[in-house]
Design a protein that fits this description.
Elements (H helix, E strand, L loop, with lengths): L7 H12 L5 E6 L5 E3 L2 E2 L6 H7 L7 E4 L10 E5 L4 H7 L5 H8 L3 E4 L3 H9 L6 E4 L14 H12 L4 E4 L1 H9 L3 H24 L6 H14 L4 E2 L4 E4 L20 E6 L1 E3 L2 E2 L2 E6 L6 H17 L9 H18 L5 H5 L39 E4 L2 E4 L4 E4 L2 E4 L6 E2 L8 H9 L1
Parallel strand pairs: 1-7, 5-6, 7-8
Antiparallel strand pairs: 1-4, 2-3, 4-5, 9-12, 10-11, 11-14, 12-13, 15-18, 16-17, 18-19
Helix pairs in contact: 1-2, 8-9, 8-13, 10-11
């Protein structure tokens, strides 16, 4: 799929990366590959996020080479794309040509991917490519048994050039991707707007007797109708006790009268993510106990917003949330102040009812970064998502917005979307 993102975004991203590379170094990247599904089928293609961040290219069999010190200016940035294959084009659709790839990426020099290793070889042994920077996904809480094309690429390059020095692009790109450009902010706002439309449709359609998958279908209809590429992550449509499973995604249960329904949804638009959580009553009216629990989370969320300013950090938000939620939980009768005084410090009582982090960066990945200690700066977009999960009562509540850090007050990218109990009930009654 071709995007309509100005190529100035990708040119800027490459320039920012190049500026942080040491002299006589090169950085090389490979595109994603199709992922097998079953039989002779593949999952829909999704580009590797760093490759898209630097090129805007949504195609396989592609490479990017950045060599800021190389004397030949035409080879300081080179994009390699798959050579035209008439058979492939007939069966799978038109392929990118060099002109299109250059217009999308802003890279002036575009060659066939079959020329990648010969060009790399020339630069690597020229005296201007002594250090090779390689890319791999680095996320502290992620493990995957499947070896990616990026990991295989790293092994191949290191085998071809065993005497070279090596560096990692991930720390550089992770830091760069935290700060969003005006173009990225605009795209993310559009993703949030589409997700808002989907949630509003659910407010108008949810009722007892529906199945969670029917609600998911309503969401996907709005996503597709508004040209989103799909979900930014597996959607959570969790009724009743299902909401107490943090990553519940079966979405197969019936919605029962009197239960709450927790949404954790977000569309992906132009490869950028949105991330929204809301909790509503299936029958359109909160019970008194549900109101107590919901307002406890909402009060904390409103207090947290003041921390989404330059100089604060995710770790501070997490610590503040747990402290505030502990007080709310005492008021809800989940435990007493006396019990807190005698609790095991390694197993705080409040962690039974709130066990996740309260914020993360979003962008090309829904979890763009999890640097808990990086001070906020204008241009960052982060989630704010406190919650409470009372298994014995079948109550799971999470409320989440995406906030843009500015010099002053943060901007809520879901501004105007119902969040107060009265707003939710009124929207559902209509």
């Amino acid at each position: 799929m071709q995007n309509n993102i100005p190529n100035r975004l990708f040119a800027r991203n490459r320039a920012n990366l190049a500026a942080q590379l040491p002299p006589k170094s090169i950085a090389i990247f490979t595109a994603n590959e199709p992922m097998p599904r079953n039989g002779d089928e593949f999952y829909p293609f999704r580009q590797q996020s760093d490759f898209f961040y630097l090129t805007g290219i949504d195609a396989e069999n592609a490479y990017l080479l950045i060599a800021p010190s190389y004397p030949d200016e035409s080879l300081r940035e080179v994009l390699f794309i798959e050579p035209y294959d008439e058979v492939k084009a007939t069966w799978q659709g038109e392929m990118l040509d060099a002109k299109q790839a250059s217009e999308l990426s802003g890279v002036k020099t575009v060659k066939g991917s079959d020329a990648f290793y010969s060009v790399l070889n020339d630069i690597a042994f020229s005296g201007y490519g002594d250090t090779i920077f390689l890319n791999s996904y680095e996320y502290p809480k992620y493990e995957c048994a499947v070896e990616t094309i990026q990991q295989r690429f790293v092994k191949k390059i290191q085998a071809l050039y065993p005497m070279h020095q090596y560096g990692r692009t991930a720390p550089i790109l992770n830091a760069l991707r935290m700060l969003k450009s005006p173009d990225e902010i605009d795209i993310t706002q559009q993703a949030c707007d589409i997700t808002s439309k989907a949630f509003r449709r659910c407010l108008a359609t949810v009722k007892p007797g529906m199945y969670e998958y029917e609600v998911q279908a309503e969401i996907e209809y709005i996503f597709k109708q508004n040209n989103a590429t799909g979900h930014a992550y597996a959607p959570i449509i969790a009724g009743g006790k299902n909401a107490c499973c943090l990553h519940y995604s079966k979405n197969q249960s019936i919605l029962r009268n009197g239960d709450l329904l927790l949404f954790d949804i977000g569309c992906e638009y132009q490869n950028y993510s949105s991330d929204l959580s809301r909790t509503i009553p299936v029958n359109g009216k909160f019970t008194e106990r549900q109101k107590q629990c919901y307002n406890a989370v909402l009060r904390v969320m409103k207090q947290l917003k003041a921390l989404y300013r330059p100089g604060h950090c995710i770790n501070e938000i997490n610590e503040t949330t747990h402290r505030l939620m502990e007080k709310e939980m005492i008021q809800l009768g989940l435990f007493t102040e006396e019990e807190v005084k005698h609790q095991d410090p390694n197993k705080p009582l409040e962690r039974k009812y709130l066990m996740h982090g309260m914020s993360h960066h979003i962008g090309l990945d829904v979890h763009d970064s999890i640097d808990k200690f990086k001070p906020f700066e204008p241009g960052m977009i982060l989630t704010c998502e406190p919650g409470i999960y009372i298994r014995e009562e079948g109550i799971g509540i999470r409320i989440e917005n995406d906030l843009l850090i500015t010099e002053g007050e943060p901007i809520n990218l879901f501004e105007g979307l119902p969040m107060e109990i009265e707003e939710i009930e009124a929207a559902m009654q209509r």
